[in-house]
Amino acid sequence: MTLNISVITPAAKRSRSGNRTTAVRWARILESLGHSTTIDEAWPGAVRPETTDILIAIHAWRSAASVAAFRARHPSRPLVVLMSGTDIYRFQHSHAKKTIASIAAADRLVGLHDVVADDLPLRFRSKLRVIHQSALPLPAPRNPSRRSFDVCVIGHLRDEKDPFRAAYAARSVPDASRLRIIHLGRPHDAAYARKARIEMATNPRYVWRGEVPRWQVRRTLARVHAMVMSSIMEGGANVVSEAVVAGVPVIASEIPGNVGLLGRDHPALYPAGDTEALYALLHRAETDSGFLKAVRAHGDARCDRFMPERERSAWAALLGELSDR
């Protein structure tokens, strides 16, 4: 049976944010399963109220109005809510009323990493289904630069990303080091853009390239030796999946969103916000080829969970559960 599925995301149509990227990928997966999908920033119930068989809302707090409107109009139709990183680690505490209302209204909750349940209220954990975000392999073998030891940071410049941690760590490397930090991402505001430009002017090891299209992200992954995921809060960043599938060793902050993707035994975790610890890992990655190979091997062993067919199967199973209702 073909279902009409409405995907709601707070990210605008032309946005390159993770929320929009997730919405577009999910819509493609759902269409590949034979269903009809639309993507909106809010549920257009007043325009086409009877055409939505299932609502999938990305972000419990930011999509709270759509969740409430859909549930009020259709008390028995299936409703799925994606728990974003800010939902899990911030808004269910700081904006509890709306966030918990969305969680309570949902028939199923989707989490993007393996330890999401640890931070959900116990009474809602039975609703949770973990669906890892997938990535495609690079079209050709990676060819890291020989002139410099390039490490990328891929993420927008905003507080949750701790975006300059790798740049700060690079300040301490020895003069003989070839380390270069390449940062891709849109600034949250003018202040962040100024800070990035100042860091480039004073730190010759830091290069900020701003927001770039997806093909440039993938080209960067093909050319770097490693990636740093420095966030202090994540719901399960797709860029980690992309790096693992691309064969890029990942150095990551030890937060649930990273541990839930990379595993508690990942050999390149550091305490979030700890510049000295990150410096030690970057220095070791550059000078100890065995360490870098071990980090990559750990990622390779987890690569299968980020394959597109696995994400597609997880959605097929979830829709099957909802249909059984």
CATH class of the largest domain: Alpha Beta
- Beta content: 15-25%
Sheet with most strands: strand arrangement: 2-1-3-4-5-6
User: Main sheet?
Assistant: 6 strands, parallel
CATH T-level topology of the largest domain: Rossmann fold
CATH-defined architecture of the largest domain: 3-Layer(aba) Sandwich
The CATH homologous superfamily of the largest domain is termed: Glycogen Phosphorylase B
- Average residue-wise pLDDT: 94
> Helical region count?
12
> What general form does the structure show?
elongated
Account of the protein in words:
It is a single chain. The chain has 325 residues and is an alpha/beta fold. The protein folds into two domains: 4-134 and 307-324, Rossmann fold, CATH 3.40.50.2000; 149-305, Glycogen Phosphorylase B (Rossmann fold, 3-Layer(aba) Sandwich), CATH 3.40.50.2000. Helix content is 41%, strand content 16%. It contains twelve helices and twelve strands. The strands form two sheets. A six-stranded parallel beta sheet has the order 2-1-3-4-5-6, with helices on both faces. Strands 9-8-7-10-11-12 form a six-stranded parallel beta sheet, sandwiched between helices. Strand 7, helix 5 and strand 8 (179-184) form a beta-alpha-beta unit. The longest helix is centred in the last third of the chain and has 17 residues, at 308-324. The mean pLDDT is 94.
